[in-house]
Amino acid sequence: MAPAKSPGMGAWLALALGVFLLDQFTKVLILGYYQLGDSTPVTGFFNVVRVHNTGAAFSFLASASGWQRWFFVGIGVVAAGFIIWMLRAHSGQRLFSFALGCVLGGAVGNVVDRLLHGYVVDFLDFHWAGWHFPAFNVADSAISVGAACLILDELLRVRRGK
User: Fold this and answer.
1) Which domain holds residue 140?
2) What is the model's pTM?
3) 10-residue averages of pLDDT along the chain (162 residues)
């Protein structure tokens, strides 16, 4: 029996496209049905909200004078180019490429928000006992999953090297 063929770069780009489309679809729904600041309780620990983030993760630089929009767009474009380059070189490494596909789709989703709106649309609000985790979106989730998979991939690679 022949060994299973590794997915090519196209599969990882399709994953990134799927993440991007899901991210943009959910943001269109939020923009269409919610006004800025609206919130709908879903459970005792989760709300759907509409928040605009002009900064980066955890609203880093959100209060800057506007230059951060183009700074984060630039970082996103450079990161996307680097990720595509890495995917071309390593598309046979499943976990690594899965992680890069997730990060790529999420990064492009947030870059598109910055270009279209000047901010990133966030809407997932988890909270407990009065404490709220910063609101986030599908793109942020994909970037986080991708980052966790990159760490796992590296740990597994180090372990195999021993």
Assistant:
1) 68-124+132-162
2) 0.88
3) 74 97 98 96 96 74 66 90 94 95 97 93 94 94 97 92 69
> In which order are the strands placed within the sheet that holds 131-132?
39-41, 46-53, 120-128, 131-132
The catalytic residue among 23, 113, 125, 140 is 140
Catalytic one of 23, 122, 125, 153: 122
Structure tokens of 162?
A: 């021993």
Residue 93: phi and psi, rounded to 5, are -90, 100
140 is catalytic: yes
Residue 56 belongs to a domain: no
Whether residue 19 is contained in a domain is answered as no
Number of folded domains that form the chain: 1
Angle between helices 94-117 and 67-90 (to 10 degrees): 160
122 has which bridge partners?
Answer: 51
Could you tell me if residue 53 is inside a domain? no
b/e code 44-68 from CB counts within 10 Å (16+ = b): eeebbbbbebbbeeeeeeeeeeeeb
